[in-house]
Each structure stands twice: as C-alpha cells, then as structure tokens.
From TrEMBL:
<dbReference type="GO" id="GO:0047605">
    <property type="term" value="F:acetolactate decarboxylase activity"/>
</dbReference>
<dbReference type="GO" id="GO:0045151">
    <property type="term" value="P:acetoin biosynthetic process"/>
</dbReference>
<comment type="similarity">
    <text>Belongs to the alpha-acetolactate decarboxylase family.</text>
</comment>
<keyword id="KW-0005">Acetoin biosynthesis</keyword>
<protein>
    <recommendedName>
        <fullName>Alpha-acetolactate decarboxylase</fullName>
        <ecNumber>4.1.1.5</ecNumber>
    </recommendedName>
</protein>
<dbReference type="InterPro" id="IPR005128">
    <property type="entry name" value="Acetolactate_a_deCO2ase"/>
</dbReference>
<comment type="pathway">
    <text>Polyol metabolism; (R,R)-butane-2,3-diol biosynthesis; (R,R)-butane-2,3-diol from pyruvate: step 2/3.</text>
</comment>
<dbReference type="Pfam" id="PF03306">
    <property type="entry name" value="AAL_decarboxy"/>
</dbReference>
<keyword id="KW-0210">Decarboxylase</keyword>
<keyword id="KW-0456">Lyase</keyword>
Length: 237
C-alpha cells in the first residue's frame, strides 16, 4: 500500500536560485514516489503538474504536452493522493480562499496539499522558456516567461503548502499549478479573481527530502552568497 502521509521532494527551490538547473531526477523515478505532483523541467523547461499518475507539461508557448518517463527535473514534489473534501466555495477570491483553507486546516507548521476542482475566473498563469547550459540565475532565467490568461476556465488547481520554517527549501506558503479539464491551458498560477468549486485537503506527517548528490555543480556550490529567499519569492510569487 502506498504511503499517503509522505510528501516527496526532489531538490530545493534554493538550488534554482544560482542556476543549478540540471535535470537530476527522471519522471519515472518521480512517479515511483507519487501519482500527484508539480515541478519544472531541466533548464526551467515549463511547468509540470501530475494528476492521477499522468504528467503534463505546460511549455512556454502555452502547449500542454504529455511527458515521457525520461524527462528530467531539477525540482519537483510528488505524493500519493488521498484527499478528503474540506469545503465548497462560490466565487471566492484567492486571498479569502487561502485564509479559509489555513483556518480550516490548522496545519500551519506542517506540509499539506490542496486540490481544487472548479471554475476559475480571470486567471493568470506562466511558464518559463527552457534555457540551456551555461545556465543563468533563477531571476534571469525567469525573465523569459510567458504569461497566459483566461476569462474563465474549468480545471484542477494543485497546491502544496510549506511551513515558514522551510522557506527556501520550498516556498513558504502555497505553491500552485493548474491544469484545465480540456488539457489546453495551465501553468504556475500567478493570480485569479475568484473560484467556485470543491476544495480537498491532504496533510503530510513526513517530508522525504531528496538531494541531487550525484550532481557535481550542486555538491560544490557555495550558497552563502545567494539571495535565496528574495529570489525564490520573486520568482514563485
């Protein structure tokens, strides 16, 4: 039986800051740790979302692609889904939604995932254009991002909440990606005006943190001069 109490994380958001963007885990390996997740490809190649064991990539042209088992990622989260319905919402703003979730979850000091299925209005997402070696910093690479908007879209929002004490390992607070029901729109969520739908919740007791120890650049990098928290929040906000 799959362990539904563990959140698996490969890499850290901090390692993206100086441009350590090599793909250091395959999609096949990532899926062995969960049937649900988010991430980005080598060189920040688009935005990934895994739903029901199927990995989708939203690339910088807005295309939704199915990802094969050899696709590599520098950073990703995955887990085995076991969500319970938390609440139903009607035309609720993103800020009010996040407040209702945090109030209901009472889990500010542990990791959890939220899945929202419904209709999102005036939504804005992004995907970054793939870069190649020699990689630039996260801040510089993220400048080459495409912004996508829709007045209304039915889809699934997948979000991971990380406690503030883990800021930098992940992004403190919510990190959210979207996939439309039609599989023709998605990406990293920048904003939305409101959503109507069902909010489901899954809490994790354990974080399994996997680091790319086979990657020479990662093992030899000195992070002490990197502006990790500001750069992570600017890129992921």
């Amino acid at each position: 039986m799959s362990n539904t109490n563990t959140l698996y994380q490969h890499g850290t958001l901090a390692l993206l800051v100086p441009g350590l963007l090599d793909g250091t885990i395959t999609m096949k390996d990532l899926l062995s740790h969960g049937d649900t997740g988010i991430g980005t490809g080598e060189g920040l190649d688009g935005e990934l979302i895994i739903l029901d064991g199927t990995p989708y990539q939203v690339d910088s042209h807005g295309n939704v692609n199915l990802v094969d088992s050899n696709f590599t990622l520098p950073f990703a989260n995955s887990h085995f889904a076991d969500y319970a319905e938390m609440l139903e919402v009607e035309d609720i703003s993103r800020n009010n939604l996040q407040k209702q979730i945090t109030d209901a979850a009472k889990s500010s000091n542990t990791f959890y995932s939220v899945k929202i299925t419904g209709t999102f209005k005036n939504i804005k997402t992004r995907a970054v254009q793939k870069s190649s070696q020699p990689y630039q910093s996260l801040a510089k690479t993220a400048e080459n991002q495409s912004i996508f908007t829709k007045d209304s879209v039915e889809g699934t929002l997948l979000s991971y909440y990380s406690p503030a004490i883990f800021d930098g390992v992940a992004v403190g607070g919510f990190h959210s990606h979207l996939m439309s029901d039609e599989h023709d729109f998605g990406g990293h969520i920048l904003s939305f005006e409101s959503v109507s739908g069902v909010v489901s919740f899954q809490q994790f007791d354990n974080l399994e943190q996997h680091l790319p120890t086979d990657n020479k650049e990662y093992m030899e990098h000195d992070f002490s001069n990197d502006n990790i928290l500001d750069d992570v929040h600017n890129a992921e906000g």
